[in-house]
Amino acid sequence: MNDSIIRNIVNNEHIMDKYTQMKRKHGNDMIILFRVGEYFETYFEDSRIVSVIFGLDRILLEKHFYYVIYATRIPEKELEYFRNTLYFRGYGTIISDRIRGNGVHKMHLK
C-alpha cells in the first residue's frame, strides 16, 4: 500500500496512525499487535502474515475505493504462544496496549 493511501487512512484513525508510525520506525520484520478488548489485532500486511502462519480468518474492517483494511485477531490468553511462534518464524512483535484512563499507550517489544 502506498504512503499517500496510508496517510488518508490514518488522518481519521488513531490506531492506523500508530501502526504507520511504528512500521516506519521498526520495519516490516516487526508485527504490531494492538489490544482491542480481549483480543490483539493486526492490520494490513501484518494481518496477512499472521493469518497465513496461524490459519486464522481475516476480518474486513473497512472497504473503500482505493483500499481495504483487514484485521486478524489473536485471543489475549494465547498471546505468548503467538509471539513465540512469530519470533521463531523471524518476526519480532510490538504490543500496543492502552493504559486505562489517560489514553497513553505502552509498547512492549520482543
User: How much of the sequence is in beta strands?
Assistant: 25-35%
Overall mean pLDDT: 79
Number of strands: 6
| Count of separate DSSP helical elements | 4
Write the layout of secondary structure elements.
Blueprint: H1 3-10, H2 14-26, E1 30-36, E2 39-43, H3 44-54, E3 59-63, E4 68-75, H4 79-88, E5 92-98, E6 105-109
Parallel strand pairs: 1-5
Antiparallel strand pairs: 1-2, 2-4, 3-4, 5-6
Describe this protein with a few key phrases.
110 residues, alpha+beta, MutS, DNA mismatch repair protein, domain I, 6-stranded mixed sheet, 4 helices, 38% helix, DNA_mismatch_repair_MutS_N, DNA mismatch repair protein MutS-like N-terminal domain-containing protein, mismatched DNA binding, ATP binding, DNA_mismatch_repair_MutS-lik_N
Task: Explain what you see.
The chain is of the alpha+beta class. It has one domain (3-109): MutS, DNA mismatch repair protein, domain I (3-Layer(aba) Sandwich). 38% of the residues lie in helices and 34% in strands. It contains four helices and six strands. The protein has helices spanning 3-10, 14-26, 44-54, 79-88; strands at 30-36, 39-43, 59-63, 68-75, 92-98, 105-109. Strands 3-4-2-1-5-6 form a six-stranded mixed sheet, with helices on both faces. Helix 1 runs antiparallel to helix 2. The two termini are 26 Å apart. Mean pLDDT is 79; it is low at 4-12 and 101-105. GO terms for molecular function: ATP binding; mismatched DNA binding.
